[in-house]
Structure prediction request, 137 residues.
Amino acid sequence: MNPLSDQSWQPWLDGVSQRLRQFTRDDLFALTVTPDRDWWAGVIEDADRTAEQIKVLLGETKPTDEGCLEASDVRSKRVSVNGQQVYAYQLVYWAGNALIPNADDVVRHKCHNRRCINPLHLSHGTQLENINDTRDR
Prediction:
């Protein structure tokens, strides 16, 4: 089964390029810029390349019965983007939604499967929320 044929998250993928192109560095961004935030902004601003990388990542996944899209067989997949290594789920969530994370922000897996990069299984949170998710499962 081709993961790109799954219609449940296809609308999200269809909107990636538009979300990336709508990103602008505003006055608040200028006041809060850090090297990491500047790097993420650069990834988002490279809209065509980033959208293609996300599409390729999602197309290479293995779907599970639970609706997860697993990017690797063993552990969370890491990818190289603009000279830095990030988890595939971070690229899909932060860049795919044109969001710039702060130092305290994490990507949470609603499915509790760290290999999953299904954008519908990912959400924004804090490390404390992530720890509580693990404890409460």
User: Anything to note?
Assistant: The radius of gyration is 15 Å.
